[in-house]
Design a protein that fits this description.
The protein is built from six helices and five strands, in the order αβαββββαααα. It is flat. Helix 2 crosses helix 3. By secondary structure, it is α+β, with helices and mostly antiparallel strands. The two termini are about 60 Å apart. It has a five-stranded antiparallel β-sheet with strand order 1-5-4-3-2, covered by helices on one side.
């Protein structure tokens, strides 16, 4: 996470949630649906969160926290776009009853970072980003291959090895059990008692 975002994160006032902790906040943006997802993706990468899922109108990320040497996802942040209205929802992934204000902090931090990322683009950059995104979504740069590689031939299965191996293992196991039974340990009786 960038230093200015770390500084802002410390100034955010927390809103505590109880029960199954989650926090939802809405804001409005003038961005189009095409440009919103790439900017939200850049924001998530700027925050150092892991991008989990994205489609035409929503994007989801998970925030990881390191404790006791293990990294685990602590919050899932889902951002949904609908006609200029953006809903940011942060939900705890653990089995805690109280989130200590972490979910409200993540949602407000995302909104701040998103607006900061949005301000980095002027109208020309937004138009260029929209063209690039449409090309990517329409697969304009995809080159159809002339020929595909041939799949590998599956190996012929040798069934006789399985049969001979099964018979040999059954005979060896039978002789071992018979030898153990003859020398004083009645394995079959012990087996029947245990079952």
């Amino acid at each position: 996470m960038e230093d200015n975002l770390k500084i802002y994160e410390k100034t955010i006032s927390k809103k505590h949630s109880f029960g199954s902790p989650k926090y939802k906040e809405e804001f409005h943006t003038s961005l189009s649906k095409t440009v919103f997802i790439p900017i939200a993706e850049k924001t998530i990468l700027k925050l150092g969160w892991d991008l989990v899922y994205k489609d035409d109108h929503s994007i989801e990320a998970k925030r990881k926290d390191k404790s006791l040497g293990f990294e685990q996802a602590t919050e899932a942040i889902t951002v949904t776009y609908s006609h200029g209205n953006v809903v940011v929802k942060s939900e705890s992934l653990g089995n805690e009853i109280w989130d200590n204000g972490r979910n409200s902090k993540r949602a407000k931090l995302f909104i701040y970072a998103f607006k900061e990322t949005e301000n980095e683009f002027d109208k020309e950059a937004l138009a260029k980003l929209e063209i690039e995104t449409e090309k990517k979504n329409n697969w304009d740069d995809y080159v159809i291959p002339e020929s595909l590689t041939e799949p590998e031939e599956p190996r012929a299965k040798n069934f006789s090895i399985l049969v001979v191996g099964g018979i040999v293992i059954a005979l060896i196991l039978g002789f071992v059990l018979a030898e153990i039974s003859i020398h004083g340990i009645y394995v079959i009786g012990l087996f029947e008692v245990l079952v």
